[in-house]
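Incident review: delayed structure delivery

Summary: a single-chain prediction request sat in the queue longer than the usual turnaround. Root cause was a stuck worker, restarted by the on-call engineer. No data loss occurred. The affected request and its eventual output are reproduced below so the record is complete for anyone auditing the incident later.

Affected input:
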Amino acid sequence: MLLCSVLGKLTVRSWVSLPLLFVGSAAGVAALLDVLLSHDRTLDQELSLSAPLLFGFAAALSMLSANHVRWTFRWQRRGLRFSYPLLMLVCALALPGLELPVVAALTVGPVAFALLAALLVRAYQDCDLPECTRA
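Output delivered after worker restart:
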């Protein structure tokens, strides 16, 4: 019930995009910090990210938010609810790291962050729905 006050009710499309937008936003923040804190301030370098950390958090986010989705079909609730976080977990275990160009991460990051903020604001506005307030 705690996440319901923060997330509200999510659509299936919002729930699927939530972890991916998180990964994009985290890559953008990491690229920005890399550019600001590095001694060599060139944008043609590669950014190394920890795939287990990113996709592990994305799997946890999708698993924790699965109870707050307005599932439209039964097959979605049964099939996607556990297979999608499991897919993220497999990515976390299979990939040792991600190498991204800093320019790409700086381009994708703010867009992903803006979309993530819009998604969370829209979901928060749906908090007053009856299915969100019932115990």
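Verification: The first strand starts at residue 46 and ends at 49.
Action items: add queue-age alerting; document worker restart procedure.
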